[in-house]
Amino acid sequence: MPKSHLITYSVREVAPYISWGYFAHAWSLHGAAAQSAEAESLMADARRMLEAMQDQVRAESLYRLCTAWADGDDIVADGTRIPLLRQQEPHADGGPLLCLSDFIRPVESGIPDRIGLFATTVHSRLAFPDDAYLNLLHQTLLDRLAEAATEAMHAHVRRVAWGYAPNERLAMDDLLAGRYQGIRPAVGYPSLPDQSINFILDSLLDMQRIGIRLTENGAMHPHSSVSGLMLAHPASRYFSVGRIGWDQLQDYARRRGLPIDMMRKYLAANL
């Protein structure tokens, strides 16, 4: 079975990919507050801590490129079935009800497609147990570095490893705004809300290679970790699954091979 590929990044390598807008959002700095003296002081502290992190922190990304096809609302990746959810609430504009499997070539076509899987985490030797402010700043930066490393990994996959966009040349602002071909839906986010999908991804990626452990609910530890899918279709886009009905819950539990009560727990926010 093909193995996942590992990339290790230093803080210096991924720092340019940090989304400082999301960093400010995590600190509730919006509007005028984002221009305040308090915000300036926070950013200065953040940049000083980033410098201190240079030799104390590393990010690791796993990715795997799989032969894939869509089978209804499932994606089959290297023979492993990944059940997905479809939107059920009608759109005001009458648009289609989307599922991520819509962006993978269907099995009926007889032509195989590809999909990428990934997991990224950040390891730090720093700790600030007696300083709540520095501890929170440290954790917020680790979260941003995990996302930044994932952004760097995805660019490598698009341009080199998968190579479907070899001539991609984007300014950093465009890159962070997702103005590239394809999408990278993360587990737990609106397009892929079932956190327990991590168990399936783990079976294909072997997340323990980079020290990620899963709880009984599929949450990842260390906290500064992210996982998901990489899709290349030019028309692929993000969406929110939103509310689902009892019929889809039953169907999804059947496709996952898990009890309905367990799926109700995993999808409580979508019921």
Automatic annotation (TrEMBL):
Pfam families: Met_synt_B12. One of its GO terms (molecular function) is methionine synthase activity. It comes from the Bacteria. GO terms for biological process: methylation. Keywords: Methyltransferase, Transferase. InterPro entries: Met_Synthase/Corrinoid (IPR050554), VitB12-dep_Met_synth_activ_dom (IPR004223), VitB12-dep_Met_synth_activ_sf (IPR037010). Residues 1-271 form the AdoMet activation domain. GO terms for cellular component: cytosol. Gene3D superfamilies: Cobalamin-dependent Methionine Synthase, domain 2 (1.10.288.10), Vitamin B12-dependent methionine synthase, activation domain (3.10.196.10). PANTHER family: METHIONINE SYNTHASE. This is 5-methyltetrahydrofolate--homocysteine methyltransferase. It comes from Candidatus Bacteroides pullicola.
